[in-house]
Design brief:
15 helices; Rossmann fold; globular; GMP Synthetase, Chain A, domain 3; homodimer; alpha/beta
């Protein structure tokens, strides 16, 4: 597998075929493909000079900048693994991840240098430190089957789990997104999603694979998205609730016509998608479904089957399985299981979880779905034991929030669940049973959580109950609780 | 890597999404995708019933029939390896391959059952024998990184070498050919190339990947190609000299206009390509370059750079290296070296050859080339030590023919080389030094070779010389000899 094609090979290919074509820009600073390839080589030389070796982990703590991508390309050519950290996590959450993956180095941008230093004592480095470490030789892109990326995702057990992805996984993701979204060399991706999540990284790899250009944004800002489309010719961006509505509001506010906008891709509620299509009649909305462990699973033009999450990705096969891993009857709901070259390598240090997740040759997503007769997939919630909440494009696992709430001295029991939310897609909500003789208020619980874990994980509301309703097997009945929340 | 996407997964995906779309037809017998999937499952059940296990080799001796494809799909789901044998080889050549790869089973079509039985004693089976072995369960497509295909290619040492390819290799080949040739679900491939070579197999996988249909031909017949386009709506076929000229002649003979013909892809001499484009002004010619070890390397619309072999395949990186594996200066000629997910796994039982071929992370093709400033590749002959002759789409290694000629009692020395040939692209030619006091004629030598190895390997002409010219390092100077052949 030594002569395979890695991320560096992709960049080097484009730099050889069209060196002067724009690859990335941020704040007016333009990287053509030749400059991007030099940036990756310079970072590779810096990593090597810092002692980074095959299989080492390199964490990165940065806003969504081109350097995350370039570092991923550079590290993968050395056989090292990049761990992009979510800058919205608290110091404690970051410390847990750093302890879990033991990075050989933490690279940070200017805003996060202090956090990196406090996390890593002696192992931290700025992007600037990595540059200028002598001549960076031409590279081969490493073994594509080896891990190159470790993305932490929210965890059932209350702790994040590290998903290991290979270069081949990421390239299969990028090429499939390129196909589904019909990305060509003429496209300009406005990089709305963070580069420390699979959606943002996958879209960027898709743009690179197509030889397109990417307009990098350090953070999501709806007015900046409108300007990137209107002024820089952006043709495409990715979205999770509530991004699209915010962009539509900003577009209206600016009175902007966006003739270059060809498509928006991702997830949103039907009324928002319809509003987008009405406001931008020349554009299309591509629905997408996937997760860190496998991206994409399905996708396609929203108009071809509104409400579905599209048809199977070009190199994906979908099966709906019951609890005994038998296919459900046609039209019935089952767990969405997938075979695809983008299925991840496994959870770091969790062989049993990894094995269970991939049992019988099928990746088990933990999501429920239905298929229509032509293979369009309809998302139908999450398996009870994997009650992930998706809010504003971030994953929140109830168990993690429950664990924090239970540290509050007044709380005897807690159950956290998602409720539909017009703005965020879903919102985190908590039901609490108080200890006898103790009292606590909604705002107090919310602030208690916000002080301890990333702010996006705090409940939007708290309901106090006498007991947590349970299903016959004794597990909390989160759906029943969700139904009690008014206006949800 | 257990939840990856294999060949069976591709067929099952298409069968789930469009079961009633035509996948293959041969002589009016139509296989929609659902029937093709059932055929693969039935063959898998038959192989399992015959005792075929993971890593076993299954040889197949057949004209180019859909069963070769279905057997490949079935075997790969079981983790077994299919060895498609070239039906043009002699019994001795086939026996060598069978001894080299020790198949657990040899499957043959009706025309080759006797040969298969004489080769394998007790291990042979007909396609019919494999069917009807009880219910074939739904399958997962196996581990895509494992070998699934063993293709024998002509060998430097005078013996064919087995190239091991994984499912991922074949799928990367198919998806890249799909991209280069712009194949969509509306296409109909006329399968002109044999399904026991990488070109024919790769094109068939490309058509399956696009959800297109393939018109299977047991053997190449120019009039049948014209009929498949004119009557069955064929849109695309692959070509090696002298196929295209023969089709053009047949088209003229039939007075056929071929409005559905969208493209022809492969290799031919500029005058033939120009004649094709003049005769079919709506069609395009796509040039392609690759080899069994990596397909495709490059390709593209012939008109964008006539005479080149196109630009780099979408997931391929090309470097031109000198004898010390350093990049040659821009514009200079060097060995064409490749990184790509379709680079093969290695030569069966030849670890040293495999290592040499993939040294420093680059697959060494043995071909020489030049790149222009925009990355278009120009084929510039073969490295002297790898003097492959390509004649009529078949590979002939001089050493193999030389070995046979040297068995002739009158011949003291022999040197075999390729000469340009209008009809066959290249023709095999031999220079012989006779033993003192012995005589032999041109026709006698040609017949001597034709009796012993596949007929396409026999020289078209023999030149008798007093001595073989040699290069400074003592190796025969084949180019100097080729220059002495008149009208070549």
């Amino acid at each position: 597998m030594e002569c395979t094609f890695g991320l560096y090979d992709l960049i080097a290919r484009q730099a050889a075929l069209f060196p002067h074509r724009e690859a990335l820009r941020r704040n007016g600073d333009v990287f053509d493909y030749a400059r991007l390839e030099r940036l990756a080589r310079s970072l590779a030389a810096g990593l090597a000079a810092a002692g980074v070796k095959t299989s080492d982990r390199v964490a990165v703590l940065s806003h969504s900048r081109e350097e995350i991508l370039a570092l991923l390309v550079a590290a993968s050519a050395l056989g090292a693994v990049v761990v992009p950290l979510n800058v919205r996590l608290t110091a404690e959450e970051l410390a847990y991840i750093v302890a879990d993956c033991s990075p050989a180095l933490i690279c940070a941008d200017g805003d996060h240098g202090e956090t990196a230093r406090s996390l890593a004592r002696g192992l931290s480095s700025s992007f600037e430190d990595l540059h200028g470490k002598g001549d960076a030789p031409a590279l081969a892109g490493g073994d594509a089957s080896r891990p190159c990326l470790l993305l932490y995702t929210a965890a059932v057990s209350g702790r994040p789990r590290g998903c290991l992805l290979s270069q081949a996984n990421l390239l299969a993701c990028g090429f499939q997104l390129r196909d589904i979204l019909e990305i060509t060399g003429g496209d300009a991706l406005v990089a709305t999603l963070p580069l420390f999540h699979i959606g943002g990284l996958g879209a960027a790899v898709a743009a690179l694979a197509a030889g397109a250009r990417t307009i990098v944004m350090e953070r999501f800002d709806p007015a900046a998205v409108v300007r990137a489309v209107a002024d820089d010719g952006g043709t495409l961006f990715m979205t999770f609730p509530p991004m699209l509505q915010a962009v539509l509001d900003a577009q209206k506010g600016a009175g902007a016509d966006l003739p270059s906008l060809r498509a928006v891709a991702g997830v949103d509620a039907p009324p928002t998608v319809e509003a987008f299509l009405a406001q931008n009649p020349r554009a299309r909305f591509f629905t997408l479904y996937g997760q860190t462990e496998v991206m994409p699973v399905s996708g396609g033009d929203w108009r071809s089957r509104p409400g579905s999450v599209g048809t199977w990705a070009p190199w994906a096969r979908v099966a709906l399985l019951d609890d005994d891993d038998r296919p459900v009857a046609p039209g019935e709901t089952g767990e969405i299981c997938v075979r695809s070259p983008s299925v991840f390598l496994g959870y770091l240090g969790l062989p049993e979880e990894t094995r269970r997740c991939g049992r019988h040759g099928w990746h088990h997503t933990g999501d429920l779905g239905r298929l229509d007769e032509e293979g369009y997939l309809y998302w139908a919630g999450r398996k009870p034991e994997k009650e992930l909440i998706k809010t504003g494009g971030e994953n929140v696992y109830p168990a993690e929030v429950e664990k924090v709430i239970l540290e509050h001295p007044a709380v005897a029991e807690a159950c956290v669940f998602g409720v539909p939310d017009e703005r965020w897609g879903e919102a985190v909500w908590a039901a609490c049973v108080l200890r006898e003789g103790r009292g606590a208020g909604e705002e107090e619980i919310i602030a208690f959580v916000a002080d301890r874990i990333a702010r996006y994980k705090r409940p939007r509301g708290v309901t106090f109950v006498r007991e947590i309703p349970r299903r016959p097997d004794g597990t909390p009945d989160r759906r029943k609780l969700a139904d009690t929340i008014p206006n949800s």
